[in-house]
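INSTRUCTION: Work out how this chain folds

Token vocabulary: learned, describes local backbone geometry

RECORD BEGINS BELOW THIS LINE
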Amino acid sequence: MKRNRLRNGLAGFIVVAVLLALAVLLGVFRPSTVAPGVQQPLTDAQTRELLPRGRELALAGNCMGCHSLPQGPRGAGGVPIDTPFGTLYSTNITPDKTHGIGNYTREDFHRVLRDGIAPGNRNLYPGMPFVFTHITRAEDIDALYAYIMSLPSIAEPNVANTGVFRLPVRPFMNFWALINFPDRQPPVREGASEQWLRGAYLVEGLGHCGACHTPRNITMGVSFARSLEGGDVVDGLVVPDITAQTLAKRGFNTTSLSEYLSSGISAQGTAFGSMYTVTHFSTSAMQAADVDAIASYLMTGKDGQLLQPAKGPEPLPAASDTPLQRGRLSYLSACAGCHGTNGEGIPNVAPPMNGNIAVVMDSPVNLLTVILQGVPTQTFTGNQRMYAMPGFADRMSAEEVAGLASWMRAQWGGQGKAITAEQVEAIASGK
């Protein structure tokens, strides 16, 4: 009798578990969070009025940076986003009715940004940062919709995803969302200025800075408890920590951070990799007031006070020791001509190395990657540029690169741990 009751209880539990799993799979626990009234189309007058605001918001969200190849048509997609499970490709977001979003209604667009669900109840993959755009206000979503629908239609087919994303796994995103998609609200703080509130709204929402700068958990969900602490690897580079404390430690204040976001150039180095896309397509073209708001929010400590820049690191004794002098000689022969004898850099030629973020980071990955692979010529605002740096993978041995990087980090980065040839070889081989 007891055995039968146990068996029946277990069967009942299994049935309930299966029914719950089916409910999750079917999206029962993902109700729409779009604002009321968006079923009504925007009028022509409303659309015209919203266009300037929509353009600014599209810049803040770096929509074109993610949805445009460097040499491709604007908004036509095709940008690869590598994940451990395969490669996602950004989609065509022009108003093309075949390949783009020309058939999206106002309500459809709201649900994409608020819920991460496209027409046909189709779950989006989190390569689209809907866990951040979720907090975007209805009026701002309307403005974005008006602006994007005003862009030229481009009949560019979307690129097929690879890996697991080729399989019919979109319904299973409902399980992912249950774990990783909190119902967030725009940040608030008692006594906060309008500038801080605006910066918080942009950074934590549409600007989705945390999509790269916040670590991911084992399911590739955003670890909001470690907001903006960096550490993950994106496109082969370690993402820097951009919390207020770390930015101040790196020598930033609100003014210098605003200047960096507006130009891509700072005393701590120039934007490269994915951050170059951000400054090039987004922050350099935004209104100065919004850039200043972002800088204000990022430089505000947990106590609500703006943090001031710390003094840069002093050379460590190890930099003068015999084992690292070979690295110093390598720098003088291969690097000083562009970056300066004292690592001061040359405007419109090469960025400074003294205090450069790649040099002062705990991880040497970014510095080693740049030394090995080089950096192409880059253009910045105000007709500024940094000329191409050649890669040294075929010009220096692993031991020489390790010595060079070790000396630079000890001299200008406050990092005393020597880099090994094995570390260099691992990066060179892509491991």
